[in-house]
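Narrative of activities, Objective 1.

The group set out to show that a structural description can be obtained from nothing but a protein's sequence at a throughput compatible with the screening campaign. Below is one input-output pair from the validation batch, recorded exactly as produced.
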Amino acid sequence: MTRALWIVIAVAAYGCVGSGTPAGSTGQPAGGSSPTAPQAVSAAAAATLRDTVRAILERARADSAFPGAFAVVGSGDSVLAQFGVGTLDWAPSPRPDEHTLWDMASLTKVVGMTSAMMQLTDAGKVDLDAPVQRYVAEFRGRHKERVTVRHLLTHSSGLPAWRPLYKETDAPAAARALAIATDLDTVPGVRMVYSDLGAIILGVVVERVSGEALDAYLSRHVFGPLRMTSTQYIPPPALLPRIAPTEYDPWRQRHIRGEVHDENAYSLGQVSGHAGLFSTGHDVARLARMYLEGGSLDGARIVSPETIRRFTTVQDSTVSNRALGWETPNGTNSAGRLMKRPAFGHTGFTGTSIWIDPSRDLFVVLLTNRVNPTRQNPRIGGVRTSLADAVVRVLDRGAIPHPTPSSPR
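Output recorded for this entry:
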């Protein structure tokens, strides 16, 4: 029986199902070894997946991990399961669905900025090993001439993790200039420090090389071709009913809904390489499917298979487990314990996450607003790892190996 037919059977068996959270870590899946080729999903596994994911998400909501969540599990050629739990807000409000808009937070780095960098390197317009100063001339200071684009993408540039641009400046241009002018903490290439500042500068690289504003570039070259029709910066007021509120922000003195949660992104005009995107389960699933399909989806070529391989491979294991833009499994991160390389993924501060495992032809997306009403809520970490591991266990146990020419029919 073909993989496509198994998927039809699975979807018919459970309709709209859920699962999802980051995955991607070391360890052995059920059965003792990681699959080496994509496998089909049986109807029984699909039904078990539905029940397992529902239980995990509903338990997490009851434990106040988030007001609402939407999870999607799929393969390169289809969504296998999707499920919404809770409500958009703690106040009476609709249940999340595939069209709910979530603040992506740091998923902006991979959904947006990294997608653009992949295309520009594909086109030969950006050299990963070129100094950042080639593209952003004002990136000056002690040792900054040694910082390459690759350093920024792997968070090994020597830049500090963060600084309060929103408190130090009063206009987007000034906030951007201050990010670019920030001194290094260490020489580049010696350690990994996850840096929003580096992602902000990479967004500037995209703009300088392409000649387009970051949001315009992504709309025209990534989201439009992929038919990610809801993914955008600064959603208009008409979309507010679809947007999940985030935090009651002490700085802005209001409950945030429809504007970026990250204060520095807000100070940068709500468009940045590190944060600011809003997206849906439907759209993020399309991005994940594009990766699993080798860089194209429904006839739209976004990047080459070789560029995907390059950007999702660990760059220097002596420094970190970072790929280019992406994170990879390390046994202790949000991926859980069962996925391992070549899986890759990322998380966002607001409670979003995506992990993609090419060896299983699998993606797992979890979108939540765990910062509503306050960021002082750490429960999402356990939800992510529990859900990731549960999805992999169910699918590994219920997988039907694809026939090979030598397999009995």
